[in-house]
Design a protein that fits this description.
The complex is a heterodimer of chains A (353) and B (211). By secondary structure, chain A is α/β, with parallel strands linked by helices. Chain A is built from 16 helices and 11 strands. Chain A has one domain: Homocysteine-binding-like domain (TIM Barrel). Helices cover 45% and strands 14% of the residues of chain A. In chain A, the strands form 2 sheets. Chain A has a 9-stranded mixed β-sheet with strand order 1-11-10-7-6-5-4-3-2. In chain A, strands 8-9 form a two-stranded antiparallel sheet. The radius of gyration of chain A is 18 Å and the shape is globular. By secondary structure, chain B is of the alpha/beta class. Chain B has 2 domains: 82 residues, Methionine synthase domain (Methyltransferase, Methionine Synthase (B12-binding Domains), Chain A, domain 1, Orthogonal Bundle); 121 residues, Rossmann fold. Chain B has a 5-stranded parallel β-sheet with strand order 2-1-3-4-5, sandwiched between helices. In chain B, strand 1, helix 5 and strand 2 form a beta-alpha-beta unit. The longest helix of chain B has 25 residues. Chain B is globular. The chains are: A alpha/beta (353), B alpha/beta (211). Chains A and B meet through helix 2 and strand 8 of A and helix 4, helix 7 and helix 8 of B.
Amino acid sequence: MNPLREWLAGGLPIADGAWGTELQARGLEPGAAPDIWNLTHPDRVEAMARAYVEAGSQVTLTNTFRANAIAMKGDLDAVNRASVEISQRAAAGRALVFASIGPTGKLPMAGEITAEQAHAAFDAQAASLAAAGADALLVETMSDIEEARLAVAAAKNTGLPVIVSFAFDSGKNKDRTMMGATPEAVAAAMVESGADAVGANCGVGVEYAAAICRRLRASCGVPIWIKPNAGLPAIEGTAVRYGATAAFFASHYSALRDAGASFPGGISHGTLRVALWRRLLSLPRRLSSRRMDREPLQQHCSARVPRRQPKRLRHEQLAQCRLKGDEKSGPGGCCGSAPDFIRALVNARCAAS
Amino acid sequence: MHDLEKLKEALIVGDWKTASAATQAALAGGVAPLTIVTGHLMPAMDEVGRRFECEEYFVPEMLLSARAMKASMEILRPLLTSSGAQPVGRVVIGTVKGDLHDIGKNLVAAMLEGGGFEVIDLGADVAPERFIEAAATRHADLVALSALLTVTMGWMKTTIDAFQAAGLREKVKIMVGGAPVTQQYADAIGADGFTDSAGSAVALARKLVAA
């Protein structure tokens, strides 16, 4: 059986939040590639990943979105391997590590790069991530079906489960990718390419995500990964802030679940990334004993939200998150409060279960 | 006139071979190069921009049209230069420092070229001093800055400030664009203009150079 389906056999687990802006808050210079910090500042990257795990993330990604040979220069094998190791240390058996593979930033169809070059870049990155022990590979923020096919094919070569996720941010209804692909076209092409799960991330806002999710769900039989944008960035002076609060984001939890999301969550242009995963807590025995505390879902929830008055407490918690979010300042304001988003999602899940 | 209609249609549907052949045929028929550009190439690319604005076209269609336009321009450019025809304006364009995402910038550059501008494309990850040097040495009317990421868009402000410090701010108009950029941000950092798509960038650029 597909490991993703096994992992999904029981509940809605939660992934992590923003990386880029969170690292900026820890001193990464604007414009510098966050991925380099895996080698230069591993302690700070690890502290950030650990903050998410401590906030309740049960899946943590890696700081490798750009670490392919077309998007970035340098010792990419070292960058990719280090990132998996950092995320594993931060997870410390409490979360799975899903390694991030982003687009090349070039368009094979425009003749900027050849399909062979793109495939080779993805192949090398996927091999490094797999060799370092990633649990699954996440091909994310794609817009071009042909480029995604190349990435999925490379990722599949590792034998790991492969999730592929597109950014739907164009068209009248914000239901097309930049390249004009619909959820239906994406789902069909990606399943055909062998993806174990398909989904949507980034995009224009959590309020659009349920409709995309429903269409992906109706178009294929594989699990659906949903990490919508938490809102478009708002500009205050020259600082960038994200409009959506943790409360607003978490309030869409039920809509996403009802739309058939296997893994709802959020992202905003590499700043907020929160994914809820169905039943990560009941992992297959081999994996769970290796990686995860065997804590039943209900126990996990009740530790955070007393079952007697889940609704009231949920709202109080969310209000608290909003307050914390508003207190943050600097670039990516609400991104700075990303661990709060995770907590709000954990609570929303518990309140809904 | 048949060849010119064919040229316009070829640009709109993105057929570079027909665009190239129709351009040659029009020249052979005695049509002036500048007439081909202003009377047919520019209106065709305006229509492509309009379709992109209306979201009838997406990036792939626009790329095909840009390629067809470039095929036609390859033939026309030497003739325009030797005839001394002046471009609508001269634009220096690039993505700001740290930002390697150049898909949007490339589309805007193609649309500007199709709109009659001379485009000096500095590529991606361009430091402020390179923008300044190119704008000064090439006597640009306009500087176009692109950023895709919220984590790099701060360099737009840095670049505009650098133009100020170099005493060149009054010599050029600066326009900005990219997914996270808004009119509000453009105003806050002191840019002269902002558009949210490659389709509307040409109209803005024309407005700025006319101002």
